[in-house]
Structures are given as C-alpha cells and as structure tokens.
Amino acid sequence: MSVRLDELDRKILVQLQQDGGLSLDDIAKAVGSSKTPVWNRIRKMRDAGVIKQQTYLLDAEALGFEACFFVLIRTSEHDATWQKAFLKALQDRPEVQEAHRLAGDIDYILKVRVANARAYDVFYQALISEVKVHNVTALLSMEEIKSTTMLPL
C-alpha cells in the first residue's frame, strides 16, 4: 500500500532522516515553509505509518517499495577505474540501501529496495549498462524476519 506524498512531504522526510533531532524551526527553514504546516505534515506522516518511530525510520512498503532483493555480484574487473565507476553507479541509485564488498566467491552484495520485479529489472539494466560485471544473481526476500538499526550496546 502506497501513501501519497507531495514534494514538501518528501523534503521534510529528507531532513528528518538526516537528523531526527532537528527543531521544527530548522526543518521549516530548510524546506521553505513555516512551523505549523511542517508540524501538521509530520503528524500526518506519523498517523499514516510512514514514520515508524521517533528515530524517523521510514516504512519502505508504506512508501510503495514492496520488493527487497539481495543482489550477488561477481566481477572479473578489479582495477581502480572499474571500482570508481561501480561505486559511482551504486551511489547514484537510491534503490541501493546497502552495498558490501565480500571475501570469498562473491565480490559484492547489494540490498536493493524497489516497488516490484519490473522496477528491479529497470535497476539491473541500468547498472549493467554502466559497469561490466561477470555474473549477477538476484534473490528476492520473501519475508523480512528481523531488521534493526539499533546497536547491541
């Protein structure tokens, strides 16, 4: 289920993700609005489940990103030029939530959040058009069992 958000809603969410402790004054100034509309929109997004907790984590499915793929990448390229192009391609794609360089048979693993399989294919085609990879395996997560940003302190 997707929640309908406008441009100002999205600007507010960007600010909250960058620093959940910002004051309403700071958020309003950053998004070009005043405090009352900003507070009303934050309240609306909380009520809709877009903001799940005070740490301002966004619910990916509530925003229409219903598919999570883990993408295993093998490459025969390891030079600095290829790595630079690969890292830029990952940085330019908001669908990539995590990227890790691995030891072992797989060179990289990506966590990619998209709306559906078609959106994943668009992501995949764009990625392989920019960087050469030897092999790509995509694994669709059927169920998220545990996800947290909390460290075990």
Automatic annotation (TrEMBL):
UniProt xrefs under PROSITE patterns: HTH_ASNC_1, HTH_ASNC_2
Gene Ontology molecular function, alphabetical: sequence-specific DNA binding
SUPFAM superfamilies: Dimeric alpha+beta barrel (SSF54909), Winged helix' DNA-binding domain (SSF46785)
SMART domains: HTH_ASNC (SM00344)
CDD domains: HTH_ARSR (cd00090)
A GO-annotated cellular component: cytosol
Protein name per the record: Leucine-responsive regulatory protein
Organism: Roseovarius litorisediminis
